[in-house]
Amino acid sequence: MLENTAKLLTVKDINKSFGQRQVLFQVSFDIKPGRIVGLIGPNGAGKTTIMKSIAGLTSYQGEIEIDGQKVSKTHTAPLKKVGSLIETPGIYPYMSGYNNLKLYAGHTSAEDLGKIMEQTMITDFANRKAKKYSLGMKQRLGVAIAMLDHPELVILDEPMNGLDPESVHSMRQLLRGLADNGVSVLISSHILSELELVADDLVVVNHGHILFNGTKDEFFASQAAKSGHGTRILIKTGDDQKAAGILESLGFQTDHKGKHMGVYTDDQHDLNKMLQQLVMNKIEIKSVSEEKQHLEDSFIDLIKGGDK
């Protein structure tokens, strides 16, 4: 299968200042059709400013292209392909959720409006005034508004904020469904465990600088390489203490956390050598697995490294 190299969104050398304070520095990345991109960084890193720049909600220096068309003050037509939920949803409190949707609906048909309400799970409270909505309800209505008029790019700033576990799961399914139908999604969230489950690619920003831009797998691989230890392999044996002594005598680093011994390597040949040595020393090997890396831990390691 040929890799899809088309770019729906291109952000190139974006700089942004508020008065004398510069908040974005040469920010560049792109998004391909049907990809979910997680934009992550600490509070104040520049995530929301990046999203507002793409959505045409703030000025900037640099270039932004949507589907090959440059966006500018005099050329905003490409923004019609963008739906967004950034910061607080623009909801009128004394109108029902349904009437809020109709207000923003544009060319969305009544049939599509119904589908969006079902997808975002707002049907049950759509006729209630929005002022009575919980935070989670408002978030779901905001996502529904972002989905109107069949956008090709959906930008969501903390869409899982205030959602209960069932709604978070449904939101994850919704985002994956959009991507499977070719819609690109740029999403920020402080719930990194959820972002890890849904994102295809990651853009990491800190102090207005891009620290990483690539696939999720590339991110984990780069962090493992930076650690200097390689991937942690979990090995459970009949005698972990003896096994650790044998592996350390061969020059491998081991540790013991929880119920498994850990040994570090990224080389399949080295792993085979380890296992052969254990077998030759009559040590029973009960299980071998690769330790799963977690986005939150890897993100913290990257941010700490970038602050040095």
From TrEMBL:
The keyword Flavoprotein does not apply. Coiled coil: none annotated. Gene3D superfamilies: P-loop containing nucleotide triphosphate hydrolases. Keywords: ATP-binding, Nucleotide-binding, Transport. One of its GO terms (molecular function) is ATP hydrolysis activity. SMART domains: AAA. PROSITE patterns: ABC_TRANSPORTER_1, ABC_TRANSPORTER_2. It holds the Pfam family ABC_tran. Residues 9-232 form the ABC transporter domain. SUPFAM superfamilies: P-loop containing nucleoside triphosphate hydrolases. PANTHER family: ABC TRANSPORTER, ATP-BINDING PROTEIN. Belongs to the ABC transporter superfamily. This is ABC transporter ATP-binding protein. The lineage of its organism: Bacteria, Bacillati, Bacillota, Bacilli, Lactobacillales.
